[in-house]
Write a structure and sequence with these properties.
Blueprint (H helix, E strand, L loop, with lengths): L19 H8 L17 E6 L38 H10 L2 E6 L19 E5 L7 H12 L3 E5 L14 H10 L11 E3 L4 E4 L2 E2 L9 E2 L2 E2 L5 E4 L2 E3 L8 E5 L11 E8 L2 E6 L27 H16 L28 E2 L8 E4 L15 E2 L4 E3 L12 E5 L5 E11 L6 E11 L10 E7 L5 E9 L8 E6 L6 E11 L5 E12 L1
Helix pairs in contact: 1-3
């Protein structure tokens, strides 16, 4: 959005500068520690809105209420947007009225794993950054990225380039890009998304046709499009993250294409991400006195409320499966996000309404970050490895099968109960293969991925790999488990090596995602 200089302008103008330095300073105060994720099993979705990074600078007023952290102090049972004071009070009130959400506002340094901070991200399912105007510090970026990687939902709302409301040299596109490309967890385009440095004056972007998408067709209605009043777009990099998806596109873009996405979603690890290209759409036209605001939330030419609320539900559904923050040391960063989830995953609501399926990641110790195989069953010589010779895809550990240059077989198994009533049931993992074999035609050393029943009978061989599939980095693989819905099956990785030259099959970031 532009500011008060245009008729349909919002809090974007001269004062749109981001307090990046302030955020950075604040973020540097805390590091990620080992602490339990307090909200993994609670009934309500807990959503934390940020107000620690100049979200009210200039004409901006991106708060759900002036009562912080708890908006219900202002009014415990709001029925209208004016019952809470803030330019995004409509967003908060709509969620509060469902009875399914607990909302709070963050006013301090972002942390993940700090038990002394009631607004620590480990206590929430979703974190909303509504047009931040100051940079996140290194520690804050680590906290946010680990939160998402472990199952949290991240909602980023940005504005057009040049919308530096506090004149600190950083606007929301720069801050979002800095988070995604300059963090200690994964800086190699983890979401497969980047915010374009554009200022699109106006328009009404249209939604793609996808009746199964929970954001476009969710519990708060059907999304047909959005509105731009000085905003920007997002570019998708599906080679870096195949889950990057554009949902709403500007008029001159190809729906479903890699450029011109006004609203985009993605995943990282066990978590979910959404980016919205204009803060005008979240503005409900009300707020504190003295701010020039515009009601984009209820724009008759768009379905902004449904888009924002459906996305919140989708992101919060992912967040309920978040896990305990565990400090990790990235080995060799991969260009794409990984699936690292809880050692004790908890099925969680999808937020799509009316479905019997609870969205969840079902594999325990999926990235082997426990430092041991359990609860996987592993052959005696299989290595849960943290050495630099076979670095992890993410975190510190991987499962290293074979690589001994002698006749040898390693196996790794885990039983998973695949629920019925879901639309997707997908096994995923990252695999790195390196070999000393020189042949380009003979598969001397092999690994198979199989599904077994309770008696050990092979139901299906999902995939086979060999020394001929050796690559310099990790490759992501995924297979449908839809045929086993309603059954408890065993996933088995078996690697068999010949007697001379080594081939290593290095497995990391496994997952079984259902939704």
């Amino acid at each position: 959005m532009f500011i008060s200089s245009l008729t349909h302008s919002r809090a974007t103008g001269v004062a749109a500068a981001v307090t990046a330095a302030t955020v950075a300073a604040a973020l540097g105060l805390f590091a990620v520690t080992n602490a339990p994720h307090a909200h993994a099993a609670t009934a309500k979705h807990r959503v934390l809105f940020d107000d620690a990074h100049a979200e009210t600078a200039g004409n901006a007023d991106w708060i759900i209420s002036t009562a912080m952290p708890d908006p219900t102090v202002q009014n415990p049972t709001p029925s209208a947007e004016t019952d809470w004071t803030g330019a995004i009070s409509s967003w908060g009130v709509a969620l509060q009225k469902t009875g399914d959400y607990t909302l709070e506002t963050n006013t301090k340094t972002i942390t993940y794993g700090d038990s002394s901070n009631p607004q620590d991200l480990s206590n929430f399912d979703e974190f909303v950054l509504p047009e931040p105007n100051s940079l996140l510090t290194a520690a804050e970026k680590t906290a946010v990225m680990k939160f998402v990687q472990n199952g949290g939902g991240l909602f980023l709302v940005v504005d057009h380039t040049g919308s530096d409301r506090n004149n600190d040299g950083y606007d929301s596109p720069a801050i979002a890009n800095d988070l995604m490309t300059n963090n200690s967890v994964d800086s190699s385009d983890p979401f497969g998304l980047s915010v374009d440095l554009l200022n699109i004056a106006s328009g009404f972007p249209k939604a793609i046709s996808d009746s199964s998408d929970p954001v476009l067709n969710g519990p708060f209605g059907t999304v047909t499009g959005g509105a731009i009043y000085n905003g920007t777009t997002v570019t998708l990099h599906t080679a870096d993250n195949p889950n990057a998806k554009g949902l709403v596109y500007v008029a001159n873009a190809t729906p479903g294409g890699s450029t011109g996405a006004f609203f985009a979603t993605s995943t990282f690890g066990s978590g979910r991400v959404a980016i919205w290209g204009d803060s005008s759409d979240i503005d409900d036209g009300t707020g504190e006195s003295g701010n020039t605001l515009y009601d984009g939330w209820n724009d008759a030419n768009a379905t902004d409320a449904a888009l924002g609320l459906n996305a919140t539900a989708w992101l919060a559904g992912a967040g309920a499966s978040t896990t305990s923050p565990t400090p990790t040391t990235t080995g060799t960063p991969s260009p794409t996000p990984t699936s690292t989830a809880s050692p004790t995953p908890t099925p969680t609501p999808t937020g799509t309404g009316g479905s019997s399926c609870a969205a969840a990641q079902l594999v325990a110790n999926p990235g082997f970050e426990a430092g041991s195989a359990a609860p996987w069953t592993a052959s005696s010589q299989l290595r849960i490895n943290s050495s630099a010779s076979e670095p992890a895809h993410s975190g510190s550990y991987d499962a290293w099968l074979d690589g001994r240059a002698t006749a040898h077989t390693d196996t790794l198994t885990q039983s998973v109960a695949v629920p019925s009533g879901c639309s997707t049931e997908t096994l995923g993992f990252w695999l790195h293969i390196d070999t000393a074999e020189t042949t380009t035609t003979t598969a001397w050393d092999k690994m198979s991925v199989e599904v077994l029943d309770s008696s050990g009978t092979v139901l299906s061989t999902l995939g086979t790999f060999s020394n001929l599939n050796a690559t310099s980095g990790y490759v992501q693989h995924s297979y449908s488990l839809a045929a086993y819905a309603g059954q408890t099956v065993t996933l088995e990785f078996t690697a068999t090596e010949g007697s001379k030259l080594q081939t290593s099959f290095v497995l990391d970031d496994t997952s079984v995602n259902v939704s």
